[in-house]
Amino acid sequence: MHQRYALAGVAALLAAVTLLVSQPTAEAPAAPARASAPEARAPTAAAERFFRELGNADPGPPIEIALTDTQDLVADFALREIMDYYLLERSDAGRWQALLGHLRRTLPSAAAREAEQLAQSYRAYLAEHDTLLAAQNFHDQPDLGRLASWQQQQRQLRLRMLGARVSEEWFGSEDAYLTQALEEAGRPQAGPPASEDEARHREHMRQVLRDTVSGARPASRYSPQTLTN
Predict the structure, then answer these.
(1) Please, what's the b/e burial string for 182-210 (b: 16 or more CB within 10 A of its CB; e: otherwise)?
(2) pTM for this structure?
(3) What is the pLDDT of residues 92-113, one digit of tens each?
């Protein structure tokens, strides 16, 4: 009798344990997922060099180089302004390579080659121009006769090294300014300026004469749009 009751008790205990084990256990609420920040990584040497060069990159002047409908180069005054930007206004050692890079980036291959050849000629012209100018040994206020003679030498130098078409496109306005300044300087002044405009004009003509005996100038000063009578 007692053995039967003991077995029954053991059976009941096993049933209770089985029931408890089969019930799903209450899980602790999961902690809300936290968005992990991107892992910070030290930039490689190549990446540092890339961003350094990107920050120092010179995009060049905001001037568009003109092309014909057949993608041929138009050697107009704007092209001289671009070349002057690199060859005259910049002072770093890599300005020549920077000019070539600008031409190759912005022009079709055939036009770029033509522009590079013209840039070579212009670079040589600038060097010879300044050599000849130094030989003139001009003082601060040279006489008009010597200035007129120097004007003729400049014309011949440009024709020889750049050709008639480019010389006219690039230097026609500058030469016209100088001719006008020489003519006005050779006339006696009729008293003080009658207006502020006349005073500015006289000063501008004097500046043209001063520029003539200085080194090469940025082209924008003699843009055709600024030429006045």
Answers:
(1) beeeeeeeeeeeeeeeeeeebeebeebbe
(2) 0.69
(3) 889 999 999 999 999 999 999 9
